[in-house]
Write a structure and sequence with these properties.
Helix content: 10-25%
Oligomer: single chain
Shape: globular
Largest sheet: 10 strands, mixed
Number of strands: 12
Order of helices and strands: HHEEEEEEEEHEEHHHEEHH
Radius of gyration: 19 Å
Structural class: alpha+beta
Number of helices: 8
Number of domains: 1
Length: 294
């Protein structure tokens, strides 16, 4: 199937107003500024797709790919742990942001690393392990598994699966979303195949569209887009009181956020022990990522 054949014919909704409106929902996936996880999620631990229900692993896919329908997507988020993360003793994060702009309002004042993420010392290359940044990017999406349009699953994409150039036909999420948008096709209207990049040392996914949804499938996906389960799946709900229990219950998957960050970071200039805010050009993460993906 050619790239263009995927988006042509066989579905009367392709030319409808609804189809055009749904394209706007891909702004979050492509890095634009457009607009508590559920009990079901897909874990990426160990380089395998693991189906988790209520914190228990119920299925493992060993063939390296998973076909899904992306029902909804959150904006990029960031999470910072002051100490080393240990899977056997989960702790609440020190600071976090649901939109990479500023710490969440729930973050205690004495734990906020900066008033704005662009000014944060944890957002500097080398502040984490090796050359990584201590505050990590991630993105939550709500998906259906192909063949099961009844249950919404949460997925948390690590930074390596979000950013970067499209190379040899392999696309990260932002490049993939932009590709679909160029073809005037919303991600909710196709079956997306996620595949582990075997050349990556950390869990890294690449994405491609394998087929358009049938009219019945599309109607089901659209109906689920703003459902309670889908909204819960993409909402970053973190607090000092409920975070640890949420991790234990399998509602979130902080251990899946990769250490190797690939997104560009604003440059920092130290002057008299004060951090000088970057210019608007440097601060615009979306613009920088767009430059990477063009």
């Amino acid at each position: 199937m050619s790239d263009m054949a995927l988006f042509e014919g066989g579905n009367s909704l392709v030319s409808s107003d609804l189809f055009k409106q749904l394209q706007d929902t891909d702004d979050n996936l492509s890095g634009g500024t457009g607009g508590g996880g559920g009990s079901r999620r897909i874990s990426l631990r160990g380089g395998r797709f693991r189906e988790m229900v209520g914190g228990e692993q119920v299925n493992v896919k060993n063939d390296g790919f998973l076909n899904v329908v992306i029902v909804n997507a959150a904006k990029l988020s960031r999470t910072y742990y002051a100490g080393e993360y240990k899977a056997d003793t989960p702790t609440a994060p020190t600071c976090w942001s649901p939109d990479t702009q500023a710490p969440a309002s729930e973050v205690p004042a004495d734990q906020r690393q900066a008033s704005r993420c662009m000014d944060c010392p944890q957002n500097i290359k080398g502040s984490g392990q090796g050359e990584s940044r201590a505050c990590r990017f991630a993105q939550r999406i709500a998906v259906f598994l192909e063949g099961n349009m009844d249950e919404v699953y949460q997925m948390q994409l690590p930074a390596t699966s979000i950013f970067g150039d499209a190379k040899d036909g392999k696309m990260g999420m932002q490049a993939y979303a932009k590709y679909l948008k160029a073809h005037k096709t919303p991600s909710i209207a196709v079956v997306t195949q996620m595949t582990f990049d075997e050349n990556s040392a950390t869990p890294k996914l690449v994405f491609k569209a394998v087929r358009p949804l049938s009219e019945e499938e599309l109607q089901q996906a659209v109906a689920a887009k703003d459902s309670e389960d889908a909204i819960k799946a993409i909402t970053l709900t973190v607090s000092q009181t409920d975070k640890v229990q949420a991790i234990r219950d399998g509602a979130v998957a902080d251990d899946e956020v990769d250490i190797g960050e690939t997104a560009p970071a604003p440059k920092k200039v130290a002057k008299k022990k004060e951090v000088v805010a970057p210019s608007s050009e440097e601060a615009d993460l979306s613009s920088i990522v767009d430059d990477w993906d063009d």
